[in-house]
# Entry
Amino acid sequence: MPKRLYLKLLLTMRLTIVIIIACFMQVSASSLAQKVTLTKSSASLRSVFKELNKQTGYNFFYTDNLLENSSPVDINVKDAELSAVLNQIFAGQNLDFIIRNKTVIIKPGTHVSQEIISGFVGDAKDHKPIPGVAVSIKGTKSTVQTDKNGKFTISIPKGAESLEFRFIGYKTVNVPISANSNYTIYMEEDQVSLNETVITGMVDRKVSTYTGAAKTMTAAELKAVSPVNLFTAIGALDPSFRMIPNNTIGGNINALPQVTMRGQTSYPTLGAELVGNPNTPLFILDGFQVSLQAIVDLDMNQIASVTLLKDASATAMYGSRGGNGVMVVTTILPPRGKVEVTLSNNFTLSSPDLSVYHMLNSMEKLDFERRVGFTNSYRGDLINSERYKAAVSGVNTDWKSIPVQTGFNNRTNLALRGGDQSLTFGLTFSSNLLQGVMKGQDRKNYAGTFTLSYRTNKFTFQNQTIGTQVISNASPYGEFSQYLDLNPYWKPYDENGNVNKYLENINMGFGVGSSIVLNPLMDVTYNTIDDRNKNFNLRNNTSVRYDANKSLWFNGALGITKVNGTIDNFYSALDSRFNGVADLSTKGTYSINNSNSFMMDGTGSVNYNKNFGKHGVTVYAGFRVASAQVSSYTVSTQGFPFDRLDNILFAAQYLDSRPTGSESTVNNLSFTGSANYSYDNRYFTDLTYTRDGSSAYGVNNKFGDFWSAGLGWNMHNEEFLKDSKKINLLRIRASYGSTGTSVQDPYAAQFRYNLGTSTGYFGEVGAFPGGLGNPSLSWQQVLKSNIGIASAFLDNRLTFNAEFYNEVTQNALTTVSLAPSTGFPSYTENLGKIQNRGLQLDLGYTILSAPRQGLKWNVSVNAATNKSVLKKVSDKLKAFNAALNTNNADQTAENAQFVEGRSTTAIYAVKSLGIDPITGQEVYLKSDGTPTFVWDVNDKTYVGDTLPTWTGAVNSNFLYAGFGLNFSISYNYGAQVYNSTLLNRVEAVDARNNVDRRAYDLGWTGPGSVSPYRRITGSPTPTKLTSRFVQNDNNIQLSSVNLSYQFKTPFVRRLGLQNLTVSATTNNLATFSTIDIERGTDNPFAREYTFGLSARF
Amino acid sequence: MVKHSQTVLNLLMIASKPLKKYFLMKTTTLIIGIVAICATSFSCKKFLDVTPKTSLSEDQLFTSEAGFQQALSGVYGQLASSKLYGDNLSMGFVSALAQNYSTIDPASSVQLQQTQLLNYTSTEVAGYTNDIWSTSYSAIAAANKIIIHTETDRPVLTNSSYALLRGEALALRAFIHFDLLRMFGPEYTTGANQKAIPYKKDVNENANKPATTADVVKFALADLKEAENLLLTVDPIVTSDLRTRRNKLNYYGVKALEARIMLYSGNNSGAAAAATVVVNSAKYNFVTQAAASAISAGLVVRDRLYFNEQVFMIRVRDILPTVQRYFRFRGAVSQTLTRTPANFATLYQTSSGGGTDIRFLYRIEADAGSVFPSKFWQASSATTTISDNLLDQYVPGIRLSEMYYILAETASTPAAGVGYLNTVRLNRGITVLPNTITAETLKAEITREYQKEFYAEGQLFFYYKRIKALRMQFRNIDMAPGQYVLPIPDSELQFNPNYAN
# Structure
């Protein structure tokens, strides 16, 4: 088809459409002569058209709303051509016209011609020019930069609406494009206090009149510390958030970290009655409660901000959930009026930190064995000679390096976000492929998010769907520490690189015992499936907001989460754990654990926010209905003769006669009311009340009441400080209130009956009591008081914040043992009392600030101290303590003890006076102060606490011309630790295993020898719990160094990019500690080196 | 609570429409609002009442008669578990205490060595006593729940099921407490006023004060009295000959238990009266020679338990593995629970006319050339269907013969007493005793009967205790009186403060 025909057809079609549409609208049409004479002033277009129609006979086609915004017409013509008249009429209008077949068609104007705009950008303070400001037209890609005099020139296409001025360190400015405006823009510096609001997860509050203790961190701040580990980053920025160090799991990527805020509100888990870790804070992601795992698996590139809510004012809204503090995470929302694509990639090398291990080499170990006395027998001598042969032939295996690797981790996040003023969308894909520092340990995390938001002037509707798939494997190499035990003169592989089945197989014959050592690496070759975890998580969050007017709005939200997970474990018959099992049908096991959970969380709220002169009022009232169901079952099978038959269907039989599993449902219902009143931005108060009900509570206590009251004073707004240049901010606030934590088993409050054939009788179904329910069981009430100061001095260069708090858990849940004559072994009760008291300090100083040169250097120091004290220990718990001691009369490892006035993390051991130089025996101090050689469990006393007195971090943030250098040093002071790894590797060593270099001297060697350690012999006796191995653990850690560069716009523009940032980060680079302890016994800690690339299109 | 939901919902309902339209929509909104409020306030309480899916809450269970029945079956099920009558209180622990078996090799899979040596401080004995103690009280707690709920949920039950359920639960409470008393409490005549065991009547976390022996007896008899009154009119066994009722603590079981307890506490006339009720009921007949000696095929086996003599018996569904572990010959006598042929000959007095005793002839059988007690020898497995013909999978609770022994012991004259004893002897295929024997001889003969009759059945040790026997048969050392009292488990002493003072 020729092009012309196309056009014509199109025109015809257009006209047809116009006509058809016109038929449905108000249409004016008539026909007459051509010359026009017209005199009108301030006449409407419609009346002018009518007149013209009368005179010329031309029809006028238009829709009513097209003329709505037209300006009145002034015209005075005589015998003029119609087209000239029309041109004159339409000159001031944003309208256009076409004349066709005696018809004038009116259409929206397109004739705003391309314009050139120029202007000047300066600093709001001193009006000096700012060079290098990015000036862009919103909604397009055209961007220019200001020159060294702050001048810019940009050509504006038709339809452009506004200009955007961007510069690092300054607030972004948007200016609408209007005809003949004078573009002189003064940009304001972006102050440190960029967080104007506190996001509480329920309602946003102005930080300037909020009495709650809350800390908000932006994604940029967090990523500057660690681009891959959220908790590490939060810990560096706010020391009240603490990751409890776990020396056993080390850097295991599949292990969940243990986190707390402001200490521990609960007793440690003693039995199955408490669920999970009872001290974990509440996690709120985009308004909905999520699990710790969901936060761990969240891609950091999705995060917009993290807010920690700490005191009663901030957490009372969460009622029985807020006692441990709340961490509110928000994700990035699609921008309005533009579309952007961001791509970020982080590549991380994680290498095992083996610097703390100093093991003996082959020759040293043999010498050690000889001195211990292993060669003093015919058998020992023979074994020694075989080993010596190996050692001289050059065997010196570095066993600790065998099960470890340098992990390659790759995180990619691709996001497409944008939309117009009413409809926005966001589409995000992320993949997170991790390798652990143990070989075979991996974690693959894929996530997709789709967000759709629609806004009319009153209604906002938003829906977000998130799908996450995680596949992880534990290392088939097992515990790392077992490789430390292996002797260096053993060879793991033969000449051809195959795994040796035996590390040592010395047979002496003549019935003399031989030495056989199996190679643990052999099991690794058997296609083992070790905790293969597949987890699929689907979340859908819907929210509706209705703005009745500017100060009143309503929110409704519904979140639904479905999680399905399986954990597989497979060991074939060849695995060494089945050595000695003869029956082939019982060798080899496969078990599958399947878990399902479904969570529903619905909220509704009314919000009111208005200022009446000097009075500001904010009111929130809401309710929440939530339900969480979790169920799981495990099927275990056995009989897998061959290691390639790695499917459960190959099983010969079931391992246990029946599947095991669990089920729980918890329903929650709560009503929250909260109000804030402020006067003149000087005095303000917060009041919160929450009534919270849970199905997990006993019938006598179905509902709990939680409340808070807070007062604040903005001293800097008072007359006497208002104009002070030195004091820019001085805010004092205090709050008191009650929150709670509910950590009990969902059914612990109920008297339950188990049914089944095993409890049946004579063909009848039997029901038998499964647990003595406590009808009074309820939440743990945490009474929190908090005093906080926020201040800024010297033109906001110096900031100082302090928080002092006292939190008392009134009725902590504990499991108490019962006399068996009650019919039940134990019972859960609210009877403990725990106090946490602490102080948190935050000092920041801007050393350099020259935003025009893009130069900024901030240094901040923070410190936190927390003292956790058991205020009340019940008689039943005291009995528990006593039982622990009497049942373990010879203790070699520390155990939990509950002593009034001490913390839950206290260490108890018998005081030691050291090793007697004459006898080589340890001298203990009895509780009555007399020395003794005899270890007695009753002499155990308090010798330290694993919780540090002070923790904190020093952070430095340096920015210059697109370069960013950030480092973070964290420190811990005043903690003690029972150095059991030292004990097991240096003193109570099994000399058959490899030992630490410090054991080489064998400890005490004879009368007169002075040594901190007892004598090492071939037949060691265990070292009983002694203060000798309690050491001060003060450490400094270079937790993060981050270097980044943001490319200047002209360069990246050529690549079609708006923004390009590259970064390099290293985490856990170095640790300086007062003690020498093996870190990461099951899994070494990792040092991470991350390279990041982030691009926005 | 309702108030709150109303306020919030009202606000929300108002809010759900634009304000200017609100007044127009007022009526509609109001209706929706009211409906929503009604729905919410109605379901609020319900929403927070979540009941477990893998178990039943107390409130759910006791809403129907079937639930009561299940709870009661649960108590019987616990009684039948290996920690009580399924093993420890029958063929296992208590029989080993009574020296029913030869010395067990420490290498045997049967862990009863220290028990036979009466080494009460050993972890082995402590393990058994702890199991018996805690399982018994656990069953008592379950029975107590039923007793409490028969009152609080009385409307759920018909009159007859109320009487039956409550009666049985009360009787079970007495039965289990009495077993604990016999084991952990002092012998009655010397220790009536000594601290014995807690008599639990409520279910809570509080440990009760241990009652004295006399009080335990008093409480148990009171429970039995109430049970008896309830059961007499409603128990089907009184009016019919329902065999399945023998598996439950039926009316005659209650009377028999009463006789047993009264005898223990020295109330001879009361014991005799109660035993007479059982004997005179004519519900229970001695086993016939033919049934006891039957050589059978299939499931209908030789009646080794003397089924028709069981006043109360406990069905142990999974008894087979226990029995096999205990009695299956494994190459040496010391590997399993048995005695030498000579011991069995002594026990049944084969040299003085006991050779014809059916208990010896047909219940001391040979397996792989070695004799063993076949009382519990099983043909049925856990999956065998229950029928009236099923003669095994039972453990005796109270036998008819015990009633005759009680009557013999409590008879006014030895001549009267020997008559009762002779009834049993005749039915066991041995000669009658002359009615001229002295009271002393009668007592010795009764002891012999207890030894023969209750071999591997668990009653013998308690008999020895009651008569303060100086020596147990096959044990060559005298008994110290304290050895008849098993120590209260450590966990009870530790967590029950009332034991301390």
Summary: The CA atoms of residues 573 and 587 of chain A lie 5 Å apart. The first helix of chain A runs from residue 3 to 24. DSSP finds 16 helices and 53 strands in chain A.
